[in-house]
């Protein structure tokens, strides 16, 4: 059967008839939505989708929103939705897809990302966390850092070094790690905001069954590229309405507080408003390109723009607010479940946006990606390309 907009509206209507939002438990509704293929319609049948064009997801979302149906709190489970799921879909076995995708999408199981390390952030392929094969298990030892949501996560996507005798990009394998297993220790990292949404994770003799390996042994870098490309699209290409995101609060303040206005601030705000709208529309175009296949390096450009705009907008907002902009609501040490840019005050936005040019790939690294993979410029000299990882200078 051809799945078009009218067919999706019919199926959505059936879901609403059999599971009325007002009388159905939220989790039961989300499970039924997944089983009906209306979770992510472009995924295969049986995995929350119908094999329909990605662009038709908006049809389902609009019908369900109008009916007051619950959503899966996508900001809370963004790592699972935007990074783990597309990687599992592309490289996972059928058993892995069936096991992980449904509770991931419904939010029953939160995911985090165990990639960056204290000595392997921008140069991720230099990672030291080791995974050694012992029978049907891999024994993992190492440390990861800047791990969002590790304190609430059940599962993690993990890359570890399995062969130190080959060049650094070639000796990496990709795993799915149970965060409740013995040997996994999560410690909070308090940030400039006073909160600890990030964590460092210590792995001590953690045993991961080979059945939780994603992709082939030694092919983890290629698998990780799928994750990283999707991460950049998820961060920089999120769907927003006009004046959504960081530009919204400062535009509201400008309209409601005329006493704060100056000609110079007006000109700067207009410039950032236009750039935000251009970025929003470019993100929409990027999402439409995804209909034809996997995201490419273009997501790096969107993530670059996202970080720069957030930092410039939040700086202007603090300046516009005058003395009020120097206030900060609460320095209490908390471990939040999500980042809420628009639900907090200007001081929080200013401080938290400083991390936008680091998380999800530093702006410096993303500039290199855009230069080499989008513009086709010569790559930087790399003297370690053909050197075994164990022989690299440290």
TrEMBL record:
<feature type="domain" description="Acyl-CoA oxidase/dehydrogenase middle">
    <location>
        <begin position="112"/>
        <end position="206"/>
    </location>
</feature>
<dbReference type="Pfam" id="PF02770">
    <property type="entry name" value="Acyl-CoA_dh_M"/>
</dbReference>
<feature type="domain" description="Acyl-CoA dehydrogenase/oxidase C-terminal">
    <location>
        <begin position="218"/>
        <end position="375"/>
    </location>
</feature>
<dbReference type="Pfam" id="PF02771">
    <property type="entry name" value="Acyl-CoA_dh_N"/>
</dbReference>
<dbReference type="GO" id="GO:0050660">
    <property type="term" value="F:flavin adenine dinucleotide binding"/>
</dbReference>
<keyword id="KW-0560">Oxidoreductase</keyword>
<dbReference type="GO" id="GO:0016627">
    <property type="term" value="F:oxidoreductase activity, acting on the CH-CH group of donors"/>
</dbReference>
<keyword id="KW-0285">Flavoprotein</keyword>
<dbReference type="InterPro" id="IPR037069">
    <property type="entry name" value="AcylCoA_DH/ox_N_sf"/>
</dbReference>
<dbReference type="InterPro" id="IPR009100">
    <property type="entry name" value="AcylCoA_DH/oxidase_NM_dom_sf"/>
</dbReference>
<dbReference type="InterPro" id="IPR013786">
    <property type="entry name" value="AcylCoA_DH/ox_N"/>
</dbReference>
<dbReference type="InterPro" id="IPR046373">
    <property type="entry name" value="Acyl-CoA_Oxase/DH_mid-dom_sf"/>
</dbReference>
<keyword id="KW-0274">FAD</keyword>
<feature type="domain" description="Acyl-CoA dehydrogenase/oxidase N-terminal">
    <location>
        <begin position="29"/>
        <end position="108"/>
    </location>
</feature>
<dbReference type="InterPro" id="IPR006091">
    <property type="entry name" value="Acyl-CoA_Oxase/DH_mid-dom"/>
</dbReference>
<comment type="similarity">
    <text>Belongs to the acyl-CoA dehydrogenase family.</text>
</comment>
<dbReference type="Pfam" id="PF00441">
    <property type="entry name" value="Acyl-CoA_dh_1"/>
</dbReference>
<dbReference type="GO" id="GO:0005886">
    <property type="term" value="C:plasma membrane"/>
</dbReference>
<dbReference type="InterPro" id="IPR052161">
    <property type="entry name" value="Mycobact_Acyl-CoA_DH"/>
</dbReference>
<protein>
    <submittedName>
        <fullName>Acyl-CoA dehydrogenase family protein</fullName>
    </submittedName>
</protein>
<dbReference type="InterPro" id="IPR009075">
    <property type="entry name" value="AcylCo_DH/oxidase_C"/>
</dbReference>
<dbReference type="InterPro" id="IPR036250">
    <property type="entry name" value="AcylCo_DH-like_C"/>
</dbReference>
């Amino acid at each position: 059967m051809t799945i078009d907009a009218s067919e999706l509206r019919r199926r959505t209507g059936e879901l609403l008839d059999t599971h009325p939002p007002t009388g159905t438990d939220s989790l039961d509704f989300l499970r039924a939505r997944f089983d009906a293929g209306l979770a992510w319609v472009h995924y295969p049948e049986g995995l929350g989708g119908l094999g329909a064009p990605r662009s038709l997801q908006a049809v389902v979302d609009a019908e369900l929103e109008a009916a007051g149906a619950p959503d899966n709190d996508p900001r809370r489970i963004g790592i699972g939705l935007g990074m783990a799921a597309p990687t599992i879909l592309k490289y996972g076995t059928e058993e892995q897809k069936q096991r992980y995708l449904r509770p991931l999408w419904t939010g029953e199981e939160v995911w985090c990302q165990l990639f960056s390390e204290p000595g392997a952030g921008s140069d991720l392929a230099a990672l030291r966390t080791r995974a050694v094969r012992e029978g049907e298990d891999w024994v993992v030892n190492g440390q990861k850092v800047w791990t969002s949501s590790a304190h609430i996560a059940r599962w993690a996507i993990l890359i570890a070094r399995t062969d130190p005798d080959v060049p650094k990009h070639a000796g990496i394998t990709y795993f799915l790690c149970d965060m409740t297993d013995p040997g996994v220790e999560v410690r909070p990292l308090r940030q400039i905001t006073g909160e600890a949404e990030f964590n460092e994770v210590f792995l001590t003799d953690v045993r991961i069954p080979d059945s939780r390996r994603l992709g082939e042994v030694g092919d983890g870098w290629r698998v990780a590229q799928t994750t990283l490309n999707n991460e950049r699209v998820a961060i920089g290409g999120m769907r927003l309405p006009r004046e959504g995101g960081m530009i919204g609060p400062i535009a509201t303040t400008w309209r409601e507080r005329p006493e704060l206005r100056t000609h110079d601030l007006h000109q700067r705000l207009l410039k950032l408003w236009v750039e935000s709208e251009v970025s929003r529309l470019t993100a929409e175009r990027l999402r439409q390109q995804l209909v034809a296949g996997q995201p490419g390096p273009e997501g790096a450009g969107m993530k670059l723009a996202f970080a720069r705009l957030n930092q410039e907008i939040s700086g202007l907002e603090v300046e516009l607010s005058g003395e009020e902009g120097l206030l900060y609501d609460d320095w209490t040490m908390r471990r939040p479940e999500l980042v809420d840019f628009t639900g907090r005050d200007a001081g929080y936005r200013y401080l938290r946006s400083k991390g936008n040019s680091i998380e999800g790939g530093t702006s410096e690294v993303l500039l290199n990606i855009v230069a080499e993979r989008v513009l086709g410029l010569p790559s930087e000299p790399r003297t370690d390309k053909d050197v075994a990882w164990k022989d690299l200078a440290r």
